[in-house]
Amino acid sequence: MKYQLLERKDRNVVEEGSSERKMTNFLETISEPGDVQHLNLDQLESLAEECRQRIIEVTSKRGGHLASSLGAVEITIALFKLFDLKKDRLVWDVGHQAYTHKLLTGRSQQFETLAQSKGVKKFLSRDESPYDHFGAGHASTSISSALGMAIARDLQKHTNRVVAVIGDGAMTGGLAFEALNHNGFLDKNLLLIYNDNGMSIDPNVGALSKLLTRIASSRLYNIFREESLEIAERAPFSETLGLKRTLQMMHDSMKAFFKPPGMLFEQLGWRYMGPVNGHSLKDLIELIGQVRDLEGPIVIHALTQKGKGYSFAEEDAFKYHGVSPFVPEDGSFLKKSKSSDNSVSYSKVFSEKLGELMEKDSKVVGVSAAMLSGTGLIGLQKKYPERIFDVGIAEGHAVTCSAGMATEGLKPYVAIYSTFLQRALDHIIHDVAIQKLPVRFMLDRAGLVGADGPTHQGVYDLTYLRMIPGMTIMVPRDGAELRMMIDFSYHYESGPIAVRYPRGNTVLTEENEIPPIEMGRAHLLQDGADIVLLAVGVMVEKAIQTANILEQEGFSVAIVNARFVKPLDQDMILNLASNTNLVVTMEENTILGGFGTAVTELLNQSGITIPTLTFGIPDRYISQGTPEEQSFDAGLSSEQMSHGIRERYQQLPIRKKSLKLTRKKAS
Fold first, then answer.
1. Helix 638-650 vs helix 539-551: crossing angle, to nearest 10
2. Sign for the pseudo-dihedral over CA of 255, 256, 260, 266
3. Letter string b/e over residues 167-205, b meaning 16 or more CB atoms within 10 A of that residue's CB
4. How far apart are CA 527 and CA 661, in angstroms?
5. d(CA 163, CA 543)
6. What are phi and psi of 368, to 5 degrees?
7. pTM score of the predicted model
8. Which residue has the higher pLDDT, 246 or 621?
9. Which of 117, 147, 303, 497 has the fewest CB neighbours in a 10 Å radius?
10. What is the 3-state composition of the chain as percent helix, strand, coil, each rounded to the nearest 5?
11. Burial code of 500-538, b = ≥16 C-beta within 10 A, e = fewer?
């Protein structure tokens, strides 16, 4: 089904069967970037319309990043028109805005498989296309990686151009400023497109601003500028009179007066051009064409609108940033089937419990890094605007700032996705753990996360946190345990403490139905003699399922909800290990250095020789897919694990006689 994109603001952007303008098929003729260079302006504008339609059609079925990609259509086409991507290098920040890039690099026909197993990835990836020059799923990396390419180009005496595209959101990350500062010193030829969708196209894009940009980017002006500065430098008494400095100050003052945003870049050593209407192909092609061969670091400031061309996304770009399947005609999202009437997201459990703590204690604060909505803090910010902090894409700052809060008696809860907290490892060690500061880390999206793929898998946190001295790590089985662990962390003041929980929903149970949380104590769900299953978090339910399969085959199986990864419940683990034939660990974390490693280290240090089997994420990257597909790929389905346990058990040289125990069935 095709939808006609309309330009009129008072109408929906898609209308089935519209005949106002006959749709062309330029997109179908594009097999590689060079094909775009043969199109004229009218054809390019038609191509932009087709790209928007294709993005809306596919994301309405598959989900994905809608608003950002709609906002970058013209920027993408202009770059493809002016650069040869077989030799020139184009780096996109994150990939949220790069769906048009995918469509124009031979992936249009496969775009229907977006975010599916073995399909087109949501982010750019070097192994998916030779035109994905740099892959990234985390923000603020584009300028740094592009600068590295420019350095490599010059060292190898190549002549290709390098372009980076970064959004205003990614500019909140410190890495972007580090790269800006570095190239201000190196002065490498590098073009930066600053895609600014955080502001409307205001009067700065008026006649005077356009005139100044046209003059500043023109070849004649730049020759005059460079030669006049060189003449001033060589002139007699130049240093005494400060001629060069005076000319440079006049140039900077003119830009500061007419273009205040540009002074940040200019002070860092970059030539600033713009702002320019980022949805005008004519203006973009003209400006980029004028500056692409200029020497040194150049910034083009393009003003765009997220969701451009789709009225619902234009009106609420936040809502339509990362979308689930929706109805393109009216923008309504398809309702997901509920697995249980008592089901609620882990993020909501966290936010509700934190809200209770904030209500009773003014010292409780929440901190996140550009993820207030995803972590559940957005509602609390409205209620406690002075105590909920969004620091932008700056995870390191979030951690160190929270450490500073903790020194003054506040109780900071740092809510960051597991995959993003990786970026702040040094801050956790240096600024928090060494000083034994009670910062509470809430790791959302821990474990396998589905369609976002390897860049977003939260499967390393148990490993990178477990190695830190003084760090306490808890993993809840369900929403009730999460609430109890948050309460436990509130009272814990001896050092940093982390709680990791998955993406998705949990069935809430009554807290009084399960044992209270005690430091380093596990919960024995069921006793057994042949095999001991030690599991954490979401793997507890799979351990129960696995035990049921094994019990049907005559095995006596103990099941333990470990609760703590650090410190371990040494007494329980050692006691069970001393009276069984096989110890099995289960976690949704890499098997290298995780929970299973901690258990085997404990057994080894205690002198207990017992066969062990560890289930976790293998030493490779798990591709995108549904959670079920990813779990199977990692070998973590209950059927796969029961099969592996059975095989391992049959290989045991000597089996201890099963003990008769009073059974307590898992619940």
1. 50
2. positive
3. bebbbbbebbeebbebbbeeebbbbbbbbbbeeebeebb
4. 7
5. 50
6. -140, 165
7. 0.84
8. 621
9. 117
10. 45, 15, 40
11. bbbbbbbebeeeeebeebeeebbbbbbbbbbbbbbbbbb
Give 294's Cβ-side CA count (13 Å radius): 29
Q: Which among 119, 19, 20, 7 is positioned nearest to 63, based on CA atoms?
A: 119
Report the amino acid identity of residue 306. K
Return the pLDDT at 421: 97
Residue range 148-168, pLDDT digits in tens? 999 999 999 999 999 999 988
Helix (H) / strand (E) element for 474: namely strand 472-474
Residue 204 reports pLDDT greater than 50: no
Does the annotation mark 87 as catalytic? no
Amino acid in position 439: V
Q: pLDDT tens-digit profile of 430-442?
A: 999 999 999 999 9
Give just the sign of the alpha carbon dihedral 387, 389, 395, 401: negative
Question: Mean pLDDT for the chain?
Answer: 87
Residue of 52, 107, 423, 566 marked catalytic: 423
Tell me the domains of the chain and their CATH numbers: 3-323 (3.40.50.970), 343-513 (3.40.50.970), 525-650 (3.40.50.920)
Amino acid present at 550: L
Query: How confident is the model at residue 656, as a pLDDT?
Result: 54
Is 306 known to be catalytic? Answer: yes
For residues 117-137, one letter each, b for 16 or more C-beta atoms within 10 angstroms of the residue's C-beta and e for the rest, the string is bebbbbbbbeebbebbbbbbb
The answer to whether 395 is a known catalytic residue is yes
pLDDT tens track for 351-381: 999 999 999 999 999 999 999 999 999 999 9
| Residue of 244, 259, 271, 306 marked catalytic | 306
Q: Are 217 and 235 in contact (CB under 8 A)?
A: no
Q: Rounded distance, CA 655 to CA 307, Å? A: 64
543: its two tokens: 């351990």
Task: Judge whether 517 and 485 are in contact, CB under 8 Å.
Answer: yes
Contacts of 57 (CB under 8 A, 6+ apart): 1, 2, 3, 328
CA angle in degrees (0–180, nearest 5) for 548-552-557: 55
Task: Show Cβ contacts of residue 314 under 8 Å, excluding neighbours closer than 6 positions.
Answer: 13, 305, 306, 307, 308
pLDDT in tens, 315-353: 888 788 888 888 988 888 887 655 556 789 999 999 999
Looking at residue 317, its pLDDT comes to: 82
Q: What is the pLDDT confidence band of residue 274, given thresholds at 50, 70 and 90?
A: confident
Considering the candidates 50, 395, 481, 588, report the single residue annotated as catalytic.
395
CA dist 282 and 49 (Å) reads: 15
247 falls in which pLDDT band (50, 70, 90)?
Answer: low
3-state SS class at 82? helix
Which 3-state string (H, E, C) describes 210-251? HHHHHHHHCHHHHHHHHHHHHHHHHCCCHHHHCHHHHHHHHH
